[in-house]
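yo, Ribosomal RNA small subunit methyltransferase I is done. seq:
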Amino acid sequence: MNEEVLRPALYVVATPLGNADDLSPRARFVLANAEVVLAEDTRRAGQLYQRLDIPSHGFVSFHEHNEDQRVEHVVSALEEGKSVAMVSDAGTPLLSDPGFTLVRACRQRGLAVVPVPGPSAPLTALCACGLPPLPFTFLGFLPRKDSDKVRLLTAHGATGATLVFFERKNRLMESLAVAAQVLGAREVCIARELTKTHEEFIYGRLDDLDALDVPMLGEFTIVIGPPAEVEVAERDELLDVLREERERGGKPRQVVRRVLERVEGWSSKDVYALLNELGDETPQE
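structure:
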């Protein structure tokens, strides 16, 4: 940046996931010159500044437990003409990190919000994993309860998009098992320790989780591919066969059995689900 002094604004600054060289010159200038720096963890922010040799003027704690209380204080500082930078522990703020409430408040009051883009774990994993990048849906951290995971994955899995989310090491395999239950046989990539010394991309399938060898160390970004193309391509054919067999009559289980004899690559669960989608036309027991 060429400015000697930052103009008054909230600067949303992306910081390195692990490799310090990923900090852009623009981000460095903003962090060095902002009058107020909001940090999710002030200790980690201090370590980042020290590691990057950036002069520090102190930090203001800003995390999920105090964001609502801090918003008015930050807005007042902006209205007084101060420059404010916001950083998360790593990567791009707001994506599974605090900041949305503040950014929304600034926009509603006509205060400038300036993105300073850079490292982002979801995009870093997506661009290197080899699974279809578009369309994709980022889910943040999955809920703790399995029932909530099922609802979330069911809703977004139905779109056919690649799914990207974060998970903690102590819940990783449990969450993948739930994903397998909901999403079926899809490709999965576990991206571990992105941009760090031990960066690793581990590949497998949700229907063969036992074959995965995942070191339970570090931070994880999960990418689950869309349904297999062969299933998407054959859906119309399956529906045609399903309608034909339903017209022949019989109980649902008999219709499903006959369909599976004619169409390969689908499970009985899949066919029952399509029967349910057809609603009132479904044969009755």
